[in-house]
What does this fold into?
Amino acid sequence: MSQINITVNGQAHDLDIDESRTLAQFLRLDLGLTGTKIGCEEAECGSCTVLVDGTPVDSCIYPALKAAGRSITTIEGLADGETLHPLQSNFIRHGAVQCGYCTPGLIMTSAALLDENPDPNEHDIKVALKDTYCRCTGYTSVISAIQSAAREKRGLPPLPVNEPVVDEPMDVISRSVPPIEVTAKVTGAAKYTDDYTFPDMLFARTLRSPHPHAKILSIHTEKAKSLAGVKAVLTYKDVPGENLHGLVYRDWPVLCGDVVRYTGDAVAIVAADSEDIAAEALMLIEVAYEPLPVVGDPEYAHKPEAPVLHPNHPTGNLLKHIKVRHGDVEQGFAEADVIVEHEYRTPTTEHAFLEPECAIGVPKGYTDHKKLTVYVGSQIPYQDRDQIGLAMGIPSESVRVIGTLIGGGFGGKEDIAGQIHVAMLATVTGKPVKMLYSRQESLIFHPKRHATIIRIKTGATKDGKLIAVQAELYGDGGAYASLSDKVMTRATTHATGPYEVPNAKIDCYAMYTNNVPSGAFRGFGVTQSAFAVEQNMDMLAEKLNIDPIEFRRMNAQKVGVTTATGQLLRESVGLLETIDDVQKDMVAKSNGHGFQWKWHEGNKAYAWGIACAYKNTGLGGGAPDKSEAEVEAFEDGTIEVRTAAADMGQGIAHVVAQCAAEEMHIAYEKVKVLLCDTDLTPNGGPTTASRQTFMTGNAARLAAVALREAITRSAAEMMDVPPEKIYYEEGLLRSNGHSMPMGDVVSWMKESGLSPKTRHEYWGPKTQPLGTGGDMHFAFSYATQAALIEVDTDTGEVQVLKILSSTDIGRAINPLMLQGQIEGGIIMAMGNCLSEAFILEDGVPWTRLLSRYKMPSIKQTPEITSRLVEHRSSEGPYGAKGVGEIPSINTTPAICNAIYNATGVRIFKIPVDQDSLLLAMKRGQTEVHRAWQDVK
Amino acid sequence: MKLWNHYHTPHTTDEALQLLNDYAGRAQVVAGGTDLLVDARAEIAYQPHEALIDITRIPELSNIRQDADMIYIGAGVTHSRIVKSQAIADSATCLVESCGVVGGPQVRNVATLGGNVAHALPAGDGTTSLVALSADVEVFYKGQRQWLPICDIFLGPGRSLLETGRDLLLGFRFKKSGQGEATAFKRIMRPQGVALPIMGCAVWVKLDAASATYEAARISVAPVGPKPALASEVEAELIGKVANSDTIESVAAFAQTVLHPRTSKYRATDDYRSEMITVLLRRTLTLATERAKTGKAVPEGVGV
It folds into this structure.
């Protein structure tokens, strides 16, 4: 212990602290200021930024004692009482807050900038925030928010908010209301899982396999158990119920007993009085392994000589063979005048949500916890509950899962992480147990985007009609199934692109390997196939001497087209309009000298590239898709919407609130939202497949309709008029000159024994399994994007200057926040194209540090124009379809098409490698099949 | 998990040396800690440092000073302070340019040039410029306080002459650019993987009184070998030649024939890195020559 004098947010402290504290730990653990977030502990992400004597530093690696005598400002110290700092209010106004986890870091870094530079231009902001990452927003709203705040600080009016244009806004729907809990997110009050503590709480850690594939010969935990402060050490023998979990296939051991199948597989768990003791205990657990041959890639996994990783799986390492058959592909190619055929490769990629996984288990009977309870930021709380129940050997109703705020997910928080482990440890120790993964553990543990090999042949007739597509895909599913079946199905069914293709034969092999498991990741397989499909489209257009935009227009899906899975598109196909929008903007953004696809200036080559995309909304494929929501009205005129639908920053909370407010004819501010408590909120289903707005939006809307009708009936009785004579105006129910507040009706209902609460179970329209024809999905969103890029012809470096996008989302429920989804999706996809690859070397992750995984920073943010097309979906709430994934699909091929247009070199493997691109340009080669991860 | 057990903030160099002595090699000197503490985390099963001795509160190590000819930078001076120093921008421009691209602002606000050199990375951006500036390093080495040429500090990649827990790096000194002299630094990065340069290059040129020819030059290209070094063959090719773009172009091309970078895993191929030597020499020599001719130097690329 050592004494520290320090001023924090103006308050002097004189304390004895542990000498080994970092400043972040001191603030969070000793002072309880949990607004400062820890994202990586590598000085990479900037989430932990605080000001030391006004200077921004990464508090995660800044020793607390280094700050002795200094004055620290954290996010909690920025507001002046109830008055938000201009940065805080403008981050809200400009829609610069989604999950909120990086927000304190962004705001603190910006606060230091504005103190030094009261009028920063975009370049100044990019320099200042270069290492303060946001994985949600795409940064454009952050830049506007900072510039707007700077103006306010200088006494000028703030900047207008850059909202997209929408059709027919309603009272609350299609209005850019602020998201739920946004004020807490900008002040540091918002609580994520690691921000919760309980008296007597223990800390847990997981022992993970260092081998990608090995037989476990023995596990000895005696030494670890005898370490002072250790409260439990558990292995496979201690799993009370079924030692397997999994969302689609239950193949993933809770704790491995006989075999480990990837580097990171859990072997033992420890709970101790402190995190340090738990970590020390891990080193005392003795596990003897016999390494086994490693299945390092999906093509090898399919070979007869490859070791079989899951002997109980009926098709060996082939998790699933997925087939699309449509028309007669041989006949199609026979009729084709031009054919292109290529192989494309995409790498494993990482979600890098800024909040690492954390779960807290609380035993039954602890304080007011009547059930075994798990606090977790999960995308699928009800399935967590079921999986915990199965593993614990108790009915799932005996488990309560309480969702906390989620610091980003993007598909990476669907599988079980620490949920079952903390349930086990809490039950055994009788105490609350927190398990927080370090960033490094998060990287090696959780399922990723599938590395995919795509061989695709596309044929067209000389008049420019697509006639046939044949493709073979290999998806690296990794050690466990996770969502591989569904993800690779989506890669397969979308492998024709959003076009009318009369003949298709597509085969996809989702394979087990000894790599990190792959699962859901924004785009859900379609990101991979679009990379191939859309480059083949450009190559065909070139061979046919047809403009690539015109070629897409000639083949675009529209109402009346039947997809390759046999689905007749009957409505809401806005692809052509998105193409029109983007083409108009491409011409408009040509700075007056007429549109040209490419040009040179000095050592810079510039070019545009274009790509289209489509993505299903909802689970589809015959899976029953339902969502429930409950709406309750109160005497004070407010209502509450309850549903277990996870909000990981994308904004389902405000979507359900808007739907309910619209139907109840009340102000948005009168709506509270309670999400994700399996005892208090009905099941909203998984947050996946861009389904929540459609599914839970509908559930909330219909529950609100039912409640409004009930209230109207009661009001009619009270006023003694027929219900149809009642109308709502300014929060009042009116009829015949009478009026009364809704709250009074609610009081009357309660007095009369009527419940002012309704629940709706919404079932999505029925879908058909793949291979049976008919509607495989109930809606599709469509998008077109164009990328303007610059290639340095001396170095091969690629910069994206502009992205023009137009997206058919049916209806924008919240235009500003929807735009944030699009911008964030685009930036994330730029990372997929240009910088991100999770590297495994024969099953061993090289990317075990965030410093080895580069996601886009604000520095890479291009100018983004995002237009909306609103072809209403008849079943969607107010016509809405999904938006979460569609923006992340076509950015990669748009950029790669632009690179080809600029350089004459075609990119067949991502992320784009400046090294091979430059050498290809110098050597007159036209193809690059090597990426950065191949430089050895 | 904790990264160190004890933390000390001495206020004098003697106090720091005493602490090192007391811990008998088990202590580790730290300045910003941005390399040291992150590296600790990169170890799969790391052990905490027994003690960290933070030298940034020692006034003598926390200054930037200048006299008529020389600039002195203490080992505890952060990259941000170097970047903001007008004296360094004017008379050792390359050092501002190299310190301005290290990490992001939060890192530059705590990371020091001293720590960067002590860490002995062969292509530390600041090191590349210090080599072109022909800087000296003041050290407490084997019980003696002394000045050593910058290149003598490096034994190999990540290996320093200075013994961890015993020796101490105190600061740097180098000559200011005079009349007809100028410097420049550039580097090539890639957007993937670790934030290490594919290739960095700093140059110092001295033109004759008529600004017509190169009278002297120092060229530092890294990483090419296991430790930083001047590219004397390339310098020789430049000296005495007319200061124009034809000379620069031919010297930049010539450099590829005498400097042979290797393929570096997850960084770049040998062929690409050779090409980058030419590109960087073209860019830095052009910039430095222009600066030497005009007598004006505004640092480029800071914070980008």
Observations:
- Chain B touches chain A through 52 residues (CB under 8 Å).
- The radius of gyration of chain B is 19 Å.
